[in-house]
Design goal:
The complex is a heterodimer of chains A (about 375) and B (about 260). Chain A is α+β, with helices and mostly antiparallel strands and about 375 residues long. Chain A has helices at about 45-50, 95-100, 110-120, 135-150, 165-185, 195-200, 220-225, 230-235; strands at about 5-15, 15-25, 30-35, 60-65, 65, 80, 155-160, 185-190, 205-210, 210-215, 240-250, 250-255, 260-265, 275-280, 285-290, 295-305, 305-315, 330-335, 345-350, 360. The chains are: A alpha+beta (about 375), B mainly alpha (about 260). The interface between A and B is medium-sized, with 29 and 21 residues.
């Protein structure tokens, strides 16, 4: 029986070192919920607190209505899939899958039926007598999933389950995971640092940084209307540019360094005043080669079939360097056209799709464009 | 030139082997001697083996040696394995300190350890006998078990125990069903090493045993003045036994590895 998870004001500390200061969230019953963040953001720590492998220094954890803070991992009825799978090397595939059932008091027939059902579901029945050392990474992953699901856990916890697989298998397995999760209808908490993986599998994502939740929402909402600058630059690629918000005739004008400006219709009412801002422009939110826009020169281009990436250098407008992106150039993506790729050195203008871009306060703490949906505040986070 | 080099290096090897094993071979050969002489081989006979098994004191010495070795092996294997598992979960500083201390008895000359035990038992007022010799053997065997089990534990994936726990196993079940099976090979090696250490120990046994209890080594030492080839027979048996155990310790892991590699092919 699948249940929802509720976490109220969780605190995690190692001695004086506070890793998670105060964190609250809710995972709905049957939801595929992802904790996403850079390494060291506390996502695995939080998952291990839910699993019972890490102590809880403060706050309350609930599975449904049951408080689980002091419950042993064995009694939480969880299924966990580890980054390195943690398949028992001395047991065959079948014995691995059965391990959890043997610890429960069920009849032999039920045990054999369930084992077979989940081995079939994960397509590993043909390997049932093999030892784990003779399985590929993808097969081990399937055994780990079958082993976790066969005990019919209330919640399925997954800690970076795909990070040890090669790129192609990763894409294949994430589809499998999503499918199985839907089929079994189980609440799933999934930890990853790969934003593309998170977006492809999740119902909702919690983006974390430094032990705090930045944004909880559907993949689309997080991508299109990130709550703050961290989320904007962590999810997807983005060009960050300094600009000024100037009020004229009661309208907010977004002005760039080289004089290009346009009216923003969707600024929050309380932010309608002159201020320095940071604009986040995704590579696909720019149109090239129009009469108006930011002036620049094509520095380089990369043809990738469906799309062509251009790198544009502007004299006056420079991109802010971030961890992922450390050059001044604008990155933009255009659908490849049948005629020539724009040659390097060409003078171009970059017109910005103003309804799509996001505008942040100068400190990056807040998106001042309307339409940000952040569930973080529903659960009592500051 | 090449041939000469090869001949020299082979010769060197054989000389070394001869140097190592000639005394042992000598003892073994003369255990089958017909006469009582220790220098002149007069003919083949098994009479010294027969005499050996007829002697009550030798039978007793063999009995004590075996019973002490078996108990010391079982106890030190259990204690050493659990200590190693505990250490692998404890903090780094504590682990480093305990492992350093663990090395000391192995590097220490036996005589120092032996006198230490003797003084300890004397000052505690314990009568020396079977109990004291057994305690001493258990104590000097434990470090060898820890030393053999520890490296395997280091390779072990921490998540295995956690995986067992979240599948509903109690911590004890996680230990017996998941952790111990992973350590099986190194636990067996540790036990065999402990067994040989206990079986052929003389110095520590000599200082911790009482007048009523003597193991093979002590018996051999005490009968050296009235030397006769039964000692040779006894020594031969010890050598054969210890060699067998050592061969098992070294060959079993090799066979297992080959099996795994074969399976992977």
């Amino acid at each position: 029986m699948s249940v929802g998870i509720k976490i109220n004001h969780a605190v995690k500390a190692y001695g004086d070192n506070v890793v998670i200061p105060d964190l609250s969230l809710e995972v709905k019953d049957g939801e595929f919920f992802t904790l996403l963040g850079p390494s060291g953001c506390g996502k695995t720590t939080l998952l291990r607190m839910i699993a019972g492998f890490n102590s809880i220094e403060g706050g309350d954890f609930y599975f449904g209505d049951k408080r689980i803070n002091n419950l042993d991992p064995a009694k939480r009825n969880i299924g966990m899939v580890f980054q390195n799978y943690a398949i028992f090397p001395h047991l065959t595939v079948e014995k691995n899958v059965q391990f959890g059932l043997k610890n429960r008091k069920i009849s032999k027939e039920d045990m054999e039926r369930d084992t077979k059902q989940f081995m079939d579901l994960m397509h590993i029945t043909e390997y049932k007598d093999r030892m784990p050392e003779r399985l590929s990474g993808g097969q081990q992953q399937r055994v780990a999933l079958a082993r976790a699901l066969v005990i019919k856990p209330d919640v399925l916890l997954m800690d970076e389950p795909l990070s040890n697989l090669d790129a192609k298998l990763r894409v294949e397995m994430r589809t499998v995971i999503k499918q199985i999760q839907r089929e079994v209808g189980i609440t799933n908490v999934y930890v990853t640092h790969d934003q593309e993986e998170a977006m492809s599998v999740s119902d909702r994502i919690a983006v974390m940084n430094l032990g705090e939740i930045q944004h909880i929402g559907k993949p689309k909402d997080i991508y299109q209307r990130p709550a703050n600058l961290f989320v904007a630059s962590f999810i997807g690629r983005t060009n960050l540019v300094n600009a000024k918000l100037v009020m004229k005739d009661g309208k907010a004008n977004l002005c760039f360094a080289d004089g290009y400006s346009f009216v923003m219709e969707n600024i929050l009412p309380e932010e309608m005043h002159d201020q320095d801002v940071i604009v986040a422009i995704r590579p696909e939110e720019v149109v090239i080669n129009t009469d108006e826009g930011i002036h620049g020169k094509v520095d380089d281009s990369v043809f990738l079939g469906l799309n062509t990436h251009y790198y544009i250098l502007s004299d006056d407008v420079h991109c802010i360097h971030t961890e992922d992106k450390d050059d001044d150039r604008f990155e933009l993506i255009q659908e490849s056209m049948i005629d020539e790729i724009i040659p390097n050195g060409s003078e171009v203008c970059l017109k910005i799709k103003k309804e799509k871009v996001n505008v942040f306060t100068a400190d990056g703490s807040k998106n001042i464009v309307k339409g940000v949906k952040n569930d973080k505040y529903l659960y009592g986070n500051d | 030139m090449k041939k000469l080099l090869k001949f020299l290096s082979n010769g060197y090897l054989w000389l070394t082997m001869l140097f190592f094993y000639l005394p042992i071979v000598y003892v073994m050969v003369f255990s089958f001697n017909e006469s009582k002489s220790l220098t002149r081989f007069t003919g083949f006979s098994l009479q010294w083996y027969k005499k050996m098994f007829e002697s009550r004191s030798i039978r007793e010495a063999i009995y004590y040696t075996l019973i002490i070795a078996v108990i010391a092996t079982v106890v030190s294997t259990i204690v050493g394995t659990l200590t190693a598992i505990g250490l692998s979960k404890s903090n780094k500083v504590l682990r480093a300190i305990v492992l350093q201390i663990n090395d000391i008895p192995m590097m220490n000359p036996d005589i120092v350890t032996a006198i230490g035990f003797m003084l300890l038992f004397t000052s505690l007022g314990v009568t020396k006998g079977f109990g004291t010799i057994l305690l001493a053997h258990i104590s000097f065997c434990i470090p060898y078990v820890i030393l053999t089990v520890m490296p395997r534990l280091r390779q072990l994936d921490d998540n295995l125990a956690e995986a067992a726990l979240d599948l509903g196993a109690t911590p004890f079940q996680a230990l017996t069903k998941v952790i111990i099976p992973q350590l099986k090979g190194s636990i067996i090696s540790g036990a065999l090493i402990a067994f040989t250490m206990s079986f052929d120990d003389f110095v520590i046994s000599f200082f911790t045993s009482g007048p009523k209890v003597s193991n093979i080594a002590i018996y051999v030492y005490s009968s050296i003045k009235r030397i006769n080839p039964t000692i040779n027979a006894l020594s031969t048996i010890i050598v054969v036994l210890v060699t067998t155990v050592l061969v098992i310790v070294n060959v079993v892991p090799m066979i297992r590895e080959r099996k795994i590699r074969g399976a992977q092919k």
